[in-house]
Write a structure and sequence with these properties.
binds FE2/S2 (inorganic) cluster; 6% helix; 4-stranded antiparallel sheet; mainly beta; two-stranded antiparallel ribbon
Amino acid sequence: MVPLYHEVMSLKIRFRPDGPLVLDLPEGTTFELNGETQTLTRAHLALCRCGHSERKPLCDGSHRKIGFQAAGGELIVREASTEQLGG
Ligand code: FES
């Protein structure tokens, strides 16, 4: 069966001021890190951007201890629509 439409996916990454890159996801979301399945215990996944986490690529809060400074912001990626008709 050929799909009549393709759902457009989008992804938003927040740059927390003076902190990590954050993906907002429902608590309980599972993800795979280097082949190991893990479950979010919070409603976000925080990725280190200061380079000092002991749990890279995950943020462990070390950015606060070192006084990491960086602007906040966000990156939004939208997949191009690939609408398929007919078939
Ligand atoms: S950004 Fe949090 S430990 Fe690096």
